[in-house]
Specification:
Mean pLDDT: 84
Helix content: 25-40%
Strand content: 25-35%
Oligomer: single chain
Order of helices and strands: EEEHEEHEHHHHEHEHEEHH
Number of helices: 10
Largest sheet: 6 strands, mixed
Number of strands: 10
Distance between the termini: 35 Å
């Protein structure tokens, strides 16, 4: 489905190139859950933004279903079925929650279906469906609404940047179930940036990043023991068990 071929992203720092991503080679198949983890600043969010087209690659190629999308716009990538849930949610002032979710679905869906997406992320639909998307909503509430919106799109390739932020422990299992259900219902692929062990536990494959590179890649069974014992992932281990 998705292939990154020697992808690099660099910025100018005092006249020299500083690599945020360096020589990223990655292939992701259909109907998979991939969890990307690693230290803060290792390039995880940048990698997602590169895939979505929010920032351009410095070098390398990106392919989706065999098509070179390296120079495609965000809109064109979205039309192909790529969706992205930001680490810091975007605010859509002037809309109500139900308007955003209905628009995302692109179908004449029943209100009950829209409410169901809110319930999956731990929000009582009765209290939120008619709420305006304004400053009265907290960052955590907006985060949940954005995840619900991404799930409602039913895209073939979803990316979630630290979806656990703003999700309380009581709602966490529901979020995990929502990711699993989206794979079964929509036959999609989910890429999730996370430090949480429960989310790592649903991964088909885990990608560990450090200092702009992929340092480990493999199945959950292969990578989890390394994460729990590696010095490189000492920060991650702390996050997992907090």
């Amino acid at each position: 489905m998705l292939k990154l071929d020697n992808v690099c992203y660099a910025v100018d720092e005092n006249g020299k190139q500083k690599y945020i991503l360096k020589n990223i080679n990655l292939e992701i198949g259909d109907n998979e859950t991939i969890v990307i983890t690693g230290h803060n600043g290792s390039g995880k969010s940048t990698l997602m933004k590169i895939i979505m087209g929010i920032i351009p690659v410095t070098s390398g190629k990106i392919y989706f279903d065999g098509v070179n999308i390296t120079d495609m716009t965000i809109t064109d990538r979205a039309k192909l079925g790529i969706a992205y849930s930001f680490q810091t949610p975007v605010r859509f002032k002037g809309l109500k929650v139900k308007d955003l979710l209905t628009t995302a679905q692109k179908t004449n869906s029943k209100l009950m279906e829209v409410c169901n997406y809110l319930s999956k992320v731990g929000l009582c639909a009765r209290n939120y469906i008619d709420r305006p998307l304004d400053d009265s909503l907290s960052g955590g509430e907006l985060k949940r609404i954005e995840i619900a919106t991404t799930l409602a799109r039913g895209a073939r390739f979803n990316m979630f940047d630290e979806p656990e932020a703003g999700i309380d422990l009581w709602s966490f299992d529901g979020l995990i179930s929502a990711f699993s259900e989206s794979l079964e219902k929509n036959k999609c692929t989910n890429i999730i940036i996370s430090h949480q062990e429960k989310i790592l536990g649903i991964a088909d494959k885990i990608v560990v990043m450090d200092s702009s590179k992929i340092t480990m890649l493999g199945t959950r069974e292969e990578i989890m023991p390394s994460i729990k014992s590696s010095r490189v992932c000492s920060k991650l281990k702390g996050d997992m068990y907090e």
